[in-house]
Amino acid sequence: MSGKRKDYISWDEYFMGVAVLSGMRSKDPNTQVGACIVSEDHKILSMGYNGFPTGCSDDEFPWEREGEPLENKYFYTTHSELNAILNYRGGSLEGATIYVTLFPCNECAKAIIQSGIRRIVYDSDKYETTPAVVASKKMLNAAGVVLQRYEHTNRRIELEL
Ligand SMILES: Nc1nc(=O)n([C@H]2C[C@H](O)[C@@H](COP(=O)(O)O)O2)cc1CO
Ligand SMILES: [Zn+2]
């Protein structure tokens, strides 16, 4: 008997929890997305959330969803997954897993495949019927990236910060 604690969080809860926390930094009023990239030996390599590129002010660029292309957010936001990949400064992501709170779009799928990430653990798939996500799954499946839906445990974690 080692007396070890039994209610510690699992690896999946830990990494999806970090992804959720990372998404809480997003300034997007409609959808906050977080991502956490993890090595095969359970080390966190990088994190990201959706937002405008460095130097593009959150107060000056538009957060609107509609209107002229130059007046809404879609040309300007960097997705959480791409930010997590680009934030990594350590070399190769070969064999890594990305935990992400929303299924990756086609553009992030390309970056995921090309960076060597081999597994995606995702939570929401609210845009699954859109061409971007259908194309994303086509490419990810062709490339042999493992797609795994996060299994909720319903554990509640309260943080006092
Ligand atoms: N996988 C994703 N990762 C992301 O970081 N995003 C970002 C881009 C936008 O800032 C926001 C989506 O805005 P909306 O269309 O739900 O109002 O989430 C979007 C997707 C969807 O494919
Ligand atoms: Zn994307």
TrEMBL record:
GO terms for biological process: nucleotide biosynthetic process; pyrimidine nucleotide metabolic process. Keywords: Hydrolase, Metal-binding, Nucleotide biosynthesis, Zinc. GO terms for molecular function: dCMP deaminase activity; zinc ion binding. CDD domains: deoxycytidylate_deaminase. Residues 10-147 form the CMP/dCMP-type deaminase domain. Its cofactor is Zn(2+). The keyword Hydrolase applies. The keyword GTP-binding does not apply. Its EC number is 3.5.4.12. It comes from the Bacteria. GO terms for cellular component: cytoplasm. Zn(2+) binds at H79, C105, C108. Pfam families: dCMP_cyt_deam_1 (PF00383). The active site is at E81 (proton donor). Belongs to the cytidine and deoxycytidylate deaminase family. This is Deoxycytidylate deaminase. It comes from Roseburia intestinalis XB6B4.
